[in-house]
Amino acid sequence: MSYQVLITDYYYPDLKQEHDVFKDTAIAIIDGNGKCKTEEALIKYARDADAIITQFVPITRKVIESLVNCQIIVRYAIGLDIIDLEAATEHGIMVANVPDYCLEEVATQTLALLLSVVRKVIPMNQGVRAGQWSYQKAEPLLRLSNMNLGLVAFGKIAQLLVEMVKAFNFKNIFVYDPYYQEQANYPWVKFVSLEELLQKSDIVSVHSPATAETKHMFNQNVFKMMKDGSFFINTARGALVKEEDLVEALESGKLAGAGLDVLTEEVGTEDHPLFRFENVVITPHMGWYSVDSIAELQRKVAIQVKKALLGETVDYCVNK
Predict the structure, then answer these.
(1) Which of 91, 108, 176, 295 could join 194 in a cystine, given CB atoms 3.0 to 4.6 angstroms apart?
(2) Phi/psi of residue 230, nearest 5 degrees
């Protein structure tokens, strides 16, 4: 029996990983990149597909209701917000993501932003280039071993991060995560309430998923609870932060700086209010990226499709 897999869109150089996974099977790829720009066009290409892989093209209820043979929809990502999960479940279609393809990269990006902000690397670099050979503009700097690190949410990325930062010998590592139940695995970590974490941490790094519950969880009230002169790091989702309140906390001096890989809007305009702060480092939602993570993502997505079509257990099915 032969199978057709529609890949709606991607921005990778090629589909070598997918072809390698499907090699020696009866699975063929339909390359829809650039062809599925409208819902109607997507329906045309997807109607008879046995599986769909998507990156940014939304798989809506209307699309799902038009599918004849589809067994699984997989996204090149962790988030599944562009797929109508309820409609897929109603129609008996598995939905999968790849939740573990960029753990090392995001943890590393978090650490890079943390060190850049706390050690004031960017403004010091700019000062040197402007002829200012002096450490005094960086004052005050503290040893990491005299600082407390607080992590809000303790999923796989935060768990990898606490392993990475062992060498820095933070005074304390605080974690707030009401859903995490295996505290005994991390005896050097102190699991505390959100209020205690905010009040005691010199650096607060957020790792929560974006949900209705967590939207704007970092707002004026939360920033006010944070330690005076503390630092804020966000490599998770822009929606977690009410940006005007973050701006206020920076303007007032409540926060000594911030490191952000995400903003509310994916593309920051030149007049974005956060861009005017020397003590804020912003990267373009690149925490997930490395050559290795992309190859891993493509390969794992293809493996999910292969397993589904060949009757094997899918690793990352979210609607079992």
Answers:
(1) 176
(2) -85, 170
CA separation for the pair 96, 317 (Å, rounded): 4
Q: Name the catalytic one among 18, 105, 285, 296.
A: 285
- Tell whether the model's pLDDT for residue 79 goes beyond 90: no
Give me the pLDDT at residue 268, please: 67
d(CA 308, CA 294): 22
Could you give the 3-state DSSP secondary structure of residue 260? strand
The percentage of residues in the chain with a pLDDT greater than 70, rounded to a whole number, is 100
User: Where are the extended beta strands (E) located within 171-215?
Assistant: 172-176, 190-191, 203-206
pTM above 0.85, yes or no: yes
**How far is it, in rounded angstroms, from Cα 298 to Cα 306?**
12
Name the one residue in this structure whose structure tokens are 């005299």: 146
Of the listed 266, 270, 272, 296, which one is catalytic? 266
Sign of the four-CA dihedral 172, 173, 174, 179? negative
Q: Is 19 annotated as catalytic? A: no
Assigned token pair, 123: 């403004």
233-258: average pLDDT: 97
* Residue of 207, 237, 243, 296 marked active site: 237
- Residue 267: both structure tokens together: 């593309």
In the annotation, is 216 catalytic? no
Residue partners of 92: CB distance under 8 A and separation at least 6: none
Question: Long-range contacts for 194-199 (Cβ within 8 Å, ≥24 apart)?
Answer: 194/152, 195/225, 197/150, 197/152, 198/150, 198/222, 198/225, 198/226, 198/227, 199/225, 199/226, 199/227
What value does the mean pLDDT of the chain take? 96
CA–CA separation, 320 and 315 (whole Å): 11
| C-beta neighbour count of 282 within 10 angstroms | 18
Torsion sign across C-alpha atoms 180, 182, 185, 186: positive
Q: Is 86 annotated as catalytic? A: no
Token pair 């008879």: residue: 48
